[in-house]
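Go through this one:
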Amino acid sequence: MIHGENLAKDLRRDHGFIHIGRTKDGNAVIMRKGDRWTVVPLRWLTSDAVDTIKAQAGVSLVRVITTAPPVRSSPEV
């Protein structure tokens, strides 16, 4: 589980979303990136809820992690 505040920070840092404000009741953050808008509830969220919010915001759910190929030592002569 992840808290909505942390998800909002991730959307700002990793995906370029801008914090617009909060809902009138203060229970959610409104964010946008270009013509994409999303609302992030400020409560504990399940991984399914996080995936849904990211999908609605147009954020890819798959992160590609690249690693260098293993270093092979040259055979001894």
